[in-house]
């Protein structure tokens, strides 16, 4: 069977427009350690394996938080719920990097990465591998601990805005 002919090159703008059609969960990805405390909003989180529990997150190397993730080698993926739209905007750049953790409600689990106590689910991780692809690094993360706040409605991002998915 012959493979279909390759598509013509796709522009970055067309790709972003296509990706805007997908609905994604929204997370605050955070870190702390010798490289300092840092975090950003991210949607590019995906499960890799349950044996051992592993997930991936794609980080733009140009983001202010990137050097801290690299140095600390740990991170926490804090999945947001309905009502966290403001936090998502803050960690996406509305608030300067040094002022993103001023509010209450942060703790930690195994690795020392900041855990949002109201997160729908928190995946506390050690970064075990890293692959550069284009502008981003794909970080492969081994899950060291979990924390769950049951009962909240989900927050989704689709078509460049936030939506609530009732539980
Ligand atoms: C909904 C949403 C999802 C995002 N997903 C990612 C992501 O997966 N990876 C990433 O590197 N940046 C992502 N960003 C961008 C970062 O949150 C942030 O805007 C960027 O790192 C600039 O932050 P800085 O001011 O700390 O440099 C996303 C932003 C939004 C609003």
TrEMBL record:
Keyword annotations from UniProtKB, A to Z: Flavoprotein, FMN, NAD, Oxidoreductase
Segments forming a coiled coil: none
Catalytic activity, reaction form: FMNH2 + NAD(+) = FMN + NADH + 2 H(+)
Pfam families per the UniProt record, alphabetical: Flavin_Reduct (PF01613)
Residues in the signal sequence: none
Domain Flavin reductase like: 19-164
EC assignment: 1.5.1.42
Superkingdom of source: Bacteria
SMART domains the UniProt entry points to: Flavin_Reduct
Described purpose of this protein according to its UniProt entry: Catalyzes the reduction of FMN to FMNH2 which is used to reduce pyrimidine by RutA via the Rut pathway.
Similarity remark: Belongs to the non-flavoprotein flavin reductase family. RutF subfamily.
Protein name in the entry: FMN reductase (NADH) RutF
Organism: Methylorubrum zatmanii
Gene this protein is translated from: rutF
